[in-house]
UniProtKB/TrEMBL annotation:
<feature type="transmembrane region" description="Helical">
    <location>
        <begin position="40"/>
        <end position="59"/>
    </location>
</feature>
<feature type="topological domain" description="Periplasmic">
    <location>
        <begin position="26"/>
        <end position="43"/>
    </location>
</feature>
<keyword id="KW-0472">Membrane</keyword>
<keyword id="KW-0812">Transmembrane</keyword>
<protein>
    <recommendedName>
        <fullName>Disulfide bond formation protein B</fullName>
    </recommendedName>
</protein>
<feature type="topological domain" description="Cytoplasmic">
    <location>
        <begin position="1"/>
        <end position="8"/>
    </location>
</feature>
<feature type="transmembrane region" description="Helical">
    <location>
        <begin position="7"/>
        <end position="28"/>
    </location>
</feature>
<keyword id="KW-0560">Oxidoreductase</keyword>
<keyword id="KW-0249">Electron transport</keyword>
<comment type="similarity">
    <text>Belongs to the DsbB family.</text>
</comment>
<dbReference type="InterPro" id="IPR050183">
    <property type="entry name" value="DsbB"/>
</dbReference>
<keyword id="KW-0143">Chaperone</keyword>
<comment type="function">
    <text>Required for disulfide bond formation in some periplasmic proteins. Acts by oxidizing the DsbA protein.</text>
</comment>
<dbReference type="InterPro" id="IPR023380">
    <property type="entry name" value="DsbB-like_sf"/>
</dbReference>
<feature type="topological domain" description="Periplasmic">
    <location>
        <begin position="81"/>
        <end position="135"/>
    </location>
</feature>
<keyword id="KW-1133">Transmembrane helix</keyword>
<dbReference type="InterPro" id="IPR003752">
    <property type="entry name" value="DiS_bond_form_DsbB/BdbC"/>
</dbReference>
Length: 158
């Protein structure tokens, strides 16, 4: 028996919040500073997680899933750029206007331990189980996008 849409959305939100937890662990325990593209990916994972959670709780499955899917697609674009930066070391996003802008957003000022961008994008090559962090991020954005598309395309099942 397949899980209901709400169960899938709860699972998606749990995955997203767990991924943010892993990011915070890597940042604060292993001193892996997030770059601007990493911070944008955190925003996208949070967007997916919150939209999925609200959709599952409120019963507004279609609307919440569409919002979560938009965040997942934004995450795919962002991680695609991040992978491009890593593949082309001369192309950097280091200390640039994007970092300054991101660090001035109220969430970065009030929650710097979560949203402050201090790392270099091309430096995100530390691996876990053979993949760099941005590659893992890409895997998860693809998985989440597929799950969200599944929820949108399947017959109505709350």
């Amino acid at each position: 028996m397949l899980p209901s849409n709400r169960q899938i959305l709860f699972a998606i939100s749990s995955i997203c919040f767990a991924l943010i937890g892993v990011a915070l662990y890597l940042q604060h325990v292993h001193d892996m500073l997030p770059c601007p593209l990493c911070v944008i990916q955190r925003y996208m994972f949070l967007g997916i997680g919150v939209a999925s959670l609200v959709a599952a709780i409120s019963g507004k499955v279609r609307a919440g899933t569409v919002l979560a899917l938009l965040a997942a697609l934004g995450g795919l674009v962002t991680v695609g750029k991040h992978l491009y930066v890593i593949a082309n070391p001369g192309f950097s996003c280091g200390i640039d206007p994007m970092e300054t802008f991101l660090n001035k957003i109220p969430t970065a000022e009030y929650l710097p331990w979560l949203f402050r961008a201090d790392g270099l994008c091309e430096g995100a090559t530390d691996g876990i189980l053979g993949l760099a962090i941005p590659q893992w991020s890409a895997v998860w954005f693809v998985v989440l996008t597929v799950l969200l598309a599944f929820v949108l395309l399947r017959k109505k099942r709350t």
